[in-house]
Amino acid sequence: MTNAAEDAYEALRSAILSGTIRPRERLGEVELSRQFGVSRTPVREALRRLTAEGLVVSQPNRGARVAEWSLADLQEIYEIRARLESYGAALAAKRIDAACLPRLDLLCDQMEERAQRGTDQDLEQIATLNAELHSLVVSAAASSRLSSLLSAVVEVPLVVRAFRLYTPDALARSMAHHRDLVAALKAGDAEWASSTMRAHVLAARTVLLDGMVGRTDF
Fold it and tell me: How far is CA 79 from the centre of its chain?
C-alpha cells in the first residue's frame, strides 16, 4: 500500500471514529481526494479497507456512506466482546508480564482523575486511555487468534462519543471495574479476571443501549 493510501485511510478512519464524519454521511471519492490532497486511487483503497472493517458501507448506485449501527447490532457486538474479552482476561491473568502492571495502575489513575472532572475533553481522553488498557490486557493474553477476532469488533463500541453517554455513577462503576481487573491480574486469578471483564463489558453495553434510545448519531 502506498503512503498516500495509508494516510487517507488513517485520516478517514479517525474522522469516522471521532464522529467528525457522522453515520449515513456520504463519502464521495472526488470530495475526499480534494480534502486529503490525493488522487482518487488512494481514497478508493481507504474506502475498501474501511468497508472490510465495517465502518463504511457501499451500495449500488448510492456509493459509500458511513455505517450506522442499530440497537440490535450493538447488542450483538457487546455480547461477542464480553465472551472474547473475558476469555482474554483469563489468559492474561496467567500470562501477563509483571512489568506491565504499573502501566495498568497508571492508566487507572489517569482515568479516575479525568472522570472526576468529566468535561467533554476529559471523556475523550478517558476513551483513549480505556482503549489502551483493554489493548494491554489483550496483548498480555498472548493469543494472536484472539487479537485478530477482537480487532473486528472492539473499535466500533469504543468510539469516543460513546463515553458521553455515561452518567457519573456509570462512569464511577466503570473505573471500579478497571481497578478490580488489575487486582485480578496481579493476583493471577483467571476466574476473577474473566468475571470482572465480562461484567465491565456488559455494563458498558447497558449504558450504550440505554443512551441510544431516541438518538440518531450512532
Answer: 14
